[in-house]
């Protein structure tokens, strides 16, 4: 009997050893998988590193590319387009002006009333309409007749309420957010369609002229006084509210910037004269590129798989269109390398499945158990039962990608300030920056990535302080300027009115 008990005990001990060995093996494999996840995270952090030294290299590169783009056509990745907007609104404008804003599958009609007294709250009305699908691929005449008809209905609703005198024709600003080569403040040739439009007969045509012909066909005595994109409209509205505004930046789904440049610095347009001595330059900065930009394998893959490889390199690192997809690619790599969840969800392999608003919601989830992170991973990417420690890693990835984007955007802004001598470097005396020579500088900013994403905005401001130093940064103000593409276009019509002409 004793031998039997000894045998049983020995057998149980052997089983216990096997169980323990299996458990240890599982823990070891689990630790190995976790180490691979952490290794991917460390690689992303290193690849997205934006030290102050690197950011200052980006600043210098931006200023150099701006100079090159102003010197000659094709001399830089930055197009540095002449907008022919040289007379920015300053708050003294009076009258009623209109705006048409065609930026995609919707368009808006606006009416703005100006009373000659600068105000941060402008009196205006707006109507929004979708563009019927068939008109996006029809003819230019069909499209512009539809827009002109909508404007006519909008005007007819005024009744006797219009402030216009009978001997004065209406004037409007036209925001047309498609690639255009501008010929004057009120003319520009369409280079190509984007955003689902494909009206073949329109390419190569003068956009405001086509609009003007449609207005005439509809019996409207309205003049297209200014053609602009949303960046220029934002600068116009920013300058109307604050005369120290010298640049504007859009940071939303896409990104772009424009600024006020001295005419004599625009070498590729020698002989260009304006009464103000300045000209608004549309940088098209989304296409900026420099070897100093912290590019990762995820950026390279995203770019190569995009419809426009080797284009818009800066935009693909900082704008809302792309940030969520960079995060998706990192999560996919982590799960592939670690094999922590078995078969990978097909949703995780779909480009742009994780939109930036969802990424921001995960990044800003402050619940103790990160339940919003878990919900988005489950509902959007079909990754269920994600442990808390992995949810924390996902938040960290969001943080790394967002922080890089915001800090690079800040470097771009400082690059503009450096080009126009507003970064403090022009006031160096005896090795120290002189506050006496620093002017108050305002940059108008529009776009949901900046205005709605708190952490992005905080990281951008932090980077401005890091690059400029607090003594200089305190002279620079970033102001959210909403609806430059609408109200700003009407203000441009006012500042370039035929009744108050300032000629180029």
TrEMBL record:
<dbReference type="GO" id="GO:0006096">
    <property type="term" value="P:glycolytic process"/>
</dbReference>
<dbReference type="Pfam" id="PF00349">
    <property type="entry name" value="Hexokinase_1"/>
</dbReference>
<dbReference type="Pfam" id="PF03727">
    <property type="entry name" value="Hexokinase_2"/>
</dbReference>
<dbReference type="InterPro" id="IPR022672">
    <property type="entry name" value="Hexokinase_N"/>
</dbReference>
<dbReference type="InterPro" id="IPR043129">
    <property type="entry name" value="ATPase_NBD"/>
</dbReference>
<dbReference type="GO" id="GO:0005524">
    <property type="term" value="F:ATP binding"/>
</dbReference>
<dbReference type="GO" id="GO:0019318">
    <property type="term" value="P:hexose metabolic process"/>
</dbReference>
<dbReference type="GO" id="GO:0005536">
    <property type="term" value="F:D-glucose binding"/>
</dbReference>
<keyword id="KW-1000">Mitochondrion outer membrane</keyword>
<keyword id="KW-0547">Nucleotide-binding</keyword>
<feature type="domain" description="Hexokinase C-terminal">
    <location>
        <begin position="248"/>
        <end position="494"/>
    </location>
</feature>
<comment type="pathway">
    <text>Carbohydrate degradation; glycolysis; D-glyceraldehyde 3-phosphate and glycerone phosphate from D-glucose: step 1/4.</text>
</comment>
<dbReference type="InterPro" id="IPR022673">
    <property type="entry name" value="Hexokinase_C"/>
</dbReference>
<feature type="domain" description="Hexokinase N-terminal">
    <location>
        <begin position="41"/>
        <end position="240"/>
    </location>
</feature>
<comment type="pathway">
    <text>Carbohydrate metabolism; hexose metabolism.</text>
</comment>
<dbReference type="InterPro" id="IPR001312">
    <property type="entry name" value="Hexokinase"/>
</dbReference>
<dbReference type="GO" id="GO:0005829">
    <property type="term" value="C:cytosol"/>
</dbReference>
<dbReference type="InterPro" id="IPR019807">
    <property type="entry name" value="Hexokinase_BS"/>
</dbReference>
<dbReference type="GO" id="GO:0005739">
    <property type="term" value="C:mitochondrion"/>
</dbReference>
<keyword id="KW-0472">Membrane</keyword>
<dbReference type="GO" id="GO:0001678">
    <property type="term" value="P:intracellular glucose homeostasis"/>
</dbReference>
<comment type="similarity">
    <text>Belongs to the hexokinase family.</text>
</comment>
<keyword id="KW-0324">Glycolysis</keyword>
<dbReference type="GO" id="GO:0004340">
    <property type="term" value="F:glucokinase activity"/>
</dbReference>
<keyword id="KW-0067">ATP-binding</keyword>
<keyword id="KW-0418">Kinase</keyword>
<dbReference type="GO" id="GO:0005741">
    <property type="term" value="C:mitochondrial outer membrane"/>
</dbReference>
<keyword id="KW-0808">Transferase</keyword>
<protein>
    <recommendedName>
        <fullName>Phosphotransferase</fullName>
        <ecNumber>2.7.1.-</ecNumber>
    </recommendedName>
</protein>
<keyword id="KW-0496">Mitochondrion</keyword>
